[in-house]
Specification:
It is a single chain. By secondary structure, the chain is mostly helical. The chain contains three helices and no strands. Helix 1 (3-42) runs antiparallel to helix 2 (48-82).
């Protein structure tokens, strides 16, 4: 296993992590932005108004996108385990 192999695996692992977390992060960001606009327009500055809807939306996004996230992580893991012997023998 060379340094290039390690860098490639690390790069793919970071990309898989971003892909798996993106649906929940984007949903939370969009809801947070909408709530911030609502609070600015109505001048309601209640702290629980921001947290509760974000938690609910992130939980719903997790349930909805769980098949995509698990397939993304499992695909990377499957590929890594199938090529593991080739990576170890390469050096």
């Amino acid at each position: 296993m060379t340094i290039d192999d390690i860098v490639d695996i690390a790069q793919r692992a970071m990309m898989v992590t971003l892909l798996a977390a993106a649906p929940m992060l984007l949903a939370g960001m969009i809801v947070g932005l909408l709530i911030s606009v609502f609070q600015s327009v109505t001048q309601i500055q209640e702290i629980t108004l921001t947290f509760v809807p974000k938690i609910v939306v992130v939980l719903v996004a997790f349930v909805v996108f769980l098949p995509f996230m698990s397939e993304t992580v499992l695909g990377f893991t499957r590929e890594l385990l199938l090529t593991f012997d080739q990576l170890v023998k390469a050096h």
